[in-house]
Amino acid sequence: MLAAVLKNFNELVLEDVPTPKPGLGQVVVRIKSCGFCATDFKAIKGIRKNVTFPLIPGHEPAGIIAAVGHGVPTLKEGDEVIVQPSGFCGRCYNCRIGNTHYCQHSYTTGGDGPPDTRPGSFAEYTLCEANTIYHKPKSLSFDAACQTEPVSGAWKGIIHLSQMQVGDDVIIIGTGGIGAYCLMIAKAAGAGRLIAIDTSDFALQTAKTAGATHTINPNKCDAKKAVYDILPDGPDLVVEAAGPIEAVKLMVTLLRRGTRWNVFGITTHETFDLDGGLTHFLEARMDASFGTNPLAMEKSIRLLSRGLVNPELIISHRFPLKDIHRAVEAMASPERNKVIVNP
Question: pLDDT of 146-156, one tens digit each?
Answer without folding.
Answer: 999 999 999 99
